[in-house]
């Protein structure tokens, strides 16, 4: 599993960060989130970046609830979505 993002849909609401910090660190604090949304001086989102640890967590803890990571569940504008990694079979690798 992996997360795909569409920055054009991001509103900068920070819900993904709060959801991650609460679920992973039991703290309602964006500083503890493993996803960070950068805003420009006008308050518009310019970048969504994930920690390297997300790759591992997406295979385990982050997808225990219905296969959808918490950061994705709380992204109401759907700037974040779950996507399955292409299998070796679908890539034509034997
Ligand atoms: S995948 Fe998991 S650890 Fe990474 S930002 Fe989303 S909720 Fe946090
Ligand atoms: S929850 Fe979605 S819309 Fe809100 S800041 Fe995060 S990525 Fe952007």
Write up this protein.
With 94 residues, the chain is of the alpha+beta class. It has a single domain (2-83), classed as Alpha-Beta Plaits (2-Layer Sandwich), CATH 3.30.70. The protein contains three helices and four strands; from the N terminus they run E-H-E-E-H-H-E. The chain has helices spanning 15-25, 53-57, 70-73; strands at residues 2-5, 35-39, 45-50, 80-83. The strands form two sheets. A two-stranded antiparallel ribbon has the order 1-4. Strands 2-3 form a two-stranded antiparallel sheet. It starts with a strand and ends in an 11-residue tail after the last strand. Bound molecules: iron/sulfur cluster (SF4) (2 copies). One iron/sulfur cluster binds next to helix 1 and strand 3. Residues 20, 23-24, 34-35, 50, 54, 57-58, 62, 69-71 line the site of one iron/sulfur cluster.
Molecular shape: globular
- What's the level 1 CATH class? Alpha Beta
Low-confidence stretches: 90-94
| Cα end-to-end separation | 21 Å
Give the tally of β-strands. Answer: 4
Oligomer: single chain
Largest beta sheet: strand ordering: 1-4
Mean of all residue-level pLDDT scores: 91
Helix vs. strand class: alpha+beta
Q: Which characteristics define this entry?
A:
binds iron/sulfur cluster; two-stranded antiparallel sheet; 94 residues; Alpha-Beta Plaits; alpha+beta; 3 helices; single chain; globular
Topology:
Blueprint: E1 2-5, H1 15-25, E2 35-39, E3 45-50, H2 53-57, H3 70-73, E4 80-83
Antiparallel strand pairs: 1-4, 2-3
The structure holds iron/sulfur cluster (2 copies).
One iron/sulfur cluster is lined by residues 20, 23-24, 34-35, 50, 54, 57-58, 62, 69-71.
